[in-house]
Design brief:
CATH class: Mainly Beta
Number of helices: 7
CATH superfamily: q2cbj1_9rhob like domain
Strand content: 15-25%
Shape: globular
Distance between the termini: 32 Å
CATH topology: Jelly Rolls
Structural class: alpha+beta
Helix content: 10-25%
Largest sheet: 7 strands, antiparallel
Radius of gyration: 18 Å
């Protein structure tokens, strides 16, 4: 799949794939995954929880040690050609465009999606993003930041871990996530554009708040939008199920790459066939067998 030698073995003698010492590429001086419950851990978690409570989002700057950022980028560049590239007409809920909806429903607002995804089954197990996603210390830390007793790896065989590729001139338009808890990391920044924009908690588990969503989609909701300046190696924790968000159009000549680590507190959650087809150009039997399983009654 990738050129020989692209995937660097960054394990040290104490790293056993996430069961012993934490991943060596994490800046444990700032984010002490090796000392759960300690003062440093508690301080990092408290800061993340405060941001999440206010904005539904937090950014842990410099989570990856500087000496590994180049490797992170190189691995992403090797993966990007394996993304499913297509331009589709979608809506913010990723439901079929011919769904019967009231005339003023935000789901009737058609968007152009030009980003691409590398599916989990195409990402080598030795890649930094794959090993970080499955690292037990990392999972425990993320769960603690979200103030949850535990998080489950999103069991979707294609969408649990992905690389999001946005080429120049393209964007990842406004949408909500299927899973409640999204963890992402920029691995390559574009020359310009490609800003992450989001509307904190624009909907809740019990209320869609269509009026506010409509305002954003019709360019009348700038007061609801926040924007993030992200750098490669920054870790972003985000409640994307309830916050409308997008990657604005990318400029220049360099693609924007970001790893998306999807977790959930609902075991067995799987993407719907329609959304899976949109993102990856294919579905698997699991998507058809579990299409009705959700932790709420919101649109997808």
């Amino acid at each position: 799949m990738a050129e020989t030698g692209v995937w660097l073995d960054v394990r040290d003698a104490n790293d056993d794939g996430g069961q012993g010492d934490p991943a060596p590429w994490v800046d444990t001086a700032r984010y002490p995954l090796d000392a759960p419950g300690g003062d440093g851990w508690a301080a990092a978690v408290a800061a993340a929880r405060a941001d999440l409570a206010t904005d539904g989002c937090t950014v842990l700057r410099g989570f990856i040690r500087p000496e590994y950022v180049h490797t992170l980028r190189t691995e992403g560049v090797a993966l990007a050609p394996h993304a499913y590239y297509t331009v589709e007409r979608v809506n913010a809920y990723n439901i079929p465009l011919d769904t019967e909806l009231p005339a003023d429903h935000p789901g009737r607002h058609v968007l152009r999606r030009g980003n691409a995804f590398v599916a989990r089954d195409l990402i080598p197990a030795e890649a930094i993003i794959h090993r970080l996603y499955t690292d037990r210390h990392f999972q425990r830390f993320v769960a603690d930041c979200f103030d949850l007793p535990a998080l489950h790896e999103y069991p979707d065989p294609l969408a649990g871990l992905t690389l999001n590729v946005v080429a120049p001139g393209m964007s990842h338009p406004w949408h909500f996530d299927t899973n409640e808890f999204t963890v992402s990391m920029l691995t390559q920044e574009p020359e310009c554009g490609g800003v992450f924009e989001y509307c904190p908690n624009i909907r809740s588990r019990t209320a869609e708040n269509f009026a506010d969503v409509n305002a954003v989609l019709t360019d009348h909701g700038d007061h609801l939008i926040r924007r993030l300046d992200l750098k490669p190696g920054d870790l972003q924790l985000f409640q994307g199920r309830f916050s409308l968000h997008r990657v604005a159009p990318v400029g220049g000549t360099i693609q924007r790459h970001s790893a998306i680590f999807a977790y959930t507190d609902t075991p067995g959650l799987i993407g719907t066939p329609e959304r899976t087809r949109q993102l990856f150009g294919r579905t698997l039997p699991e998507h058809h067998a579990a299409q009705s399983l959700r932790g709420d009654r919101l649109l997808d």
